[in-house]
Specification:
Elements: H1 3-10, H2 12-19, H3 22-29, H4 34-60, H5 65-92, H6 97-101, H7 107-122, H8 125-149, H9 157-162, H10 166-185, H11 188-213
Helix pairs in contact: 1-11, 2-11, 3-8, 4-5, 4-7, 4-8, 4-11, 7-8, 7-11, 8-10, 8-11
Bound molecules: ligand VIB.
Organism: Roseinatronobacter ekhonensis
Pathway: Cofactor biosynthesis; thiamine diphosphate biosynthesis
GO molecular function, one term: thiaminase activity
Length: 228
């Protein structure tokens, strides 16, 4: 079995749980509370920067020119496409540059981007590419699922349409092909590491939406609870 076939089978329940999340149900029927989307879009802009950094790092260590071109191009492409989407929605939902600049990444966002960056910096290209793949795969999966159910006047229509476009499908296919190619060339040890990296990032995709739905930030220690 190819890498993609293997990990989709191994993570089928998790992917189904992601499609069923309240955040994604509310996105599909257009009832996602404004406050939740504002929180999400700021965190997603932070995520995107970390994701692009991880791709650039992975590109620098890739085993051949085709992989370097794909990873470096994908990082630049991601920043262009998703930044436009964020700018559109930040404008629509009244999120200002000051709001973004004064809102740090949440634990869910920070953990996910830190994982991607450290994997790209310290592990094999196979592992890095496997860690980066759920970003593409999960959004394609959720995008198609929501698209079939979403109402025409849904305020999140532009968001949904981005992830069912032919361009996005082609980008997902290229990421799957690179993962399959590196998996086919990898040792059993690296293959296991690639499957684990994919599962971990998929779980962090779940955690990212869960955190946004609950408007989670950093815990704030109670100074009165500190022993004298
Ligand atoms: C937490 C989180 N995960 C994945 C994506 C989707 N995404 C971000 S960059 C990129 C590559 C090309 O557009 C894709 C698919 C997101 N927005 N937020």
């Amino acid at each position: 079995m190819s890498f993609v076939e293997t990990v989709l089978q191994e993570n089928a329940d998790l992917c189904a749980a992601i499609r069923a999340m309240p955040f994604n149900r509310a996105l599909a029927d257009g009832t996602l509370p404004t406050e939740v989307f504002q929180h999400y879009i700021i965190q997603d802009a932070h995520y995107l920067e970390g994701f692009a950094r991880a791709l650039a790092l992975a590109a620098s260590a890739a085993p051949d020119a085709d992989a370097v071109a794909q990873l470096a191009g994908s990082g630049a492409g991601a920043l262009h496409v998703e930044r436009d989407l964020h700018a559109h929605y930040m404008g629509l939902f009244g999120v200002t540059a000051a709001d973004f600049n004064t809102t740090p990444p949440t634990p869910a966002c920070d953990h996910y981007t830190s994982f991607l960056i450290s994997t790209a910096a310290t592990c094999t290209t196979g592992e890095a590419v496997a860690a980066l793949l759920p970003c593409f795969w999960v959004y394609r999966d959720v995008g198609h699922d929501i698209h079939t159910r979403a109402a025409g006047d849904n305020p999140y229509r532009a968001w949904i349409d981005t992830y069912v476009s032919d361009d996005f499908d082609a980008a997902v296919a290229r990421s799957c092909e690179l993962s399959d190619r590196l998996y086919a060339q990898a040792s059993d040890t690296v293959r296991g590491q690639m499957r684990a990296a994919f599962a971990k990032s998929t779980l962090m995709e779940w955690a990212f939406w869960d955190s946004a739905w609950h408007l989670r930030g950093w815990p704030t220690p109670d100074p009165t609870g500190i022993a004298a």
